[in-house]
Design a protein that fits this description.
InterPro entries: Hydrolase_YcaC-like, Isochorismatase-like_dom, Isochorismatase-like_sf. By secondary structure, the protein is an alpha/beta fold. It is about 45% helix and about 15% strand. It is globular.
């Protein structure tokens, strides 16, 4: 099957979290910051729940950009690739090699800010044959116009624009799958789907 038509699974994808740094979070005005944080945590928990490899990178964290937000490291660990100067993470040999080492051609990617930290490596990875899912609601930027322009440019370049819940559902594939119930719990914890999930749990406890 062509890798661009093949759906996401726990075994064919890697999660890349790019520059979700405390100093950069002040730039994120295109969505509610609490909602964005919940989305970032949900995406990270999805990967941890199914055992999907993850690669975290930060841009000059010793400066004003700051460290990676603790909501990510608390879930995925603190093995972080600290870049000395590359704006486009894909131009960092360490980051690119970490992706390559997984042997996976599908990259679930999120970054702050959307129009730089996410868009640049997403387009670069697609140009090298990777199938990239840009998770725009686990990313953030200056305003909605900037986010929209970024989505257009990524789409034109062949990046698949996605949301974290749709990525989770695609990875789950079937409620009866090995990770179905646990992934439903992740969705319930970080979205209003919790009411449906709680109803399901109650119905099945009787």
């Amino acid at each position: 099957m062509n890798k661009f038509a093949e759906t996401l699974t726990p075994d064919n994808a890697v999660l890349a979290m790019i520059d979700h740094q405390t100093g950069l979070l002040v730039s994120c005005r295109d969505q509610d910051p609490h909602l964005m944080t919940a989305n970032i945590k949900g995406l990270s928990m999805m990967a941890k729940t199914v055992g999907m490899p993850s690669v975290i990178t930060a841009s000059m964290p010793e400066g004003p950009n700051g460290p990676i937000m603790p909501e990510i490291t608390d879930i995925l660990g603190d093995n972080i690739i600290n870049r000395a100067g590359e704006i486009n993470a894909w131009k960092s040999p360490e980051f690119r090699h970490a992706i390559e080492a997984t042997g996976r051609k599908k990259i679930i990617m999120a970054g702050i800010v959307t129009d730089v930290c996410l868009m640049f490596p997403a387009i670069s990875a697609v140009a090298e044959g990777y199938d990239v899912y840009a998770v725009v609601d686990a990313s953030g930027t200056w305003n909605s116009a900037v986010a929209e322009a970024s989505i257009h440019r990524m789409t034109q370049a062949g990046v698949k624009v996605a949301t974290w819940a749709s990525v989770l559902a695609e990875v789950m594939d079937d409620w009866r799958s090995e990770h179905g119930l646990a992934l439903g719990g992740v969705l319930g914890e970080h979205t209003s789907y919790r009411w449906v999930y709680n109803s399901f749990l109650q119905a099945n406890s009787q």
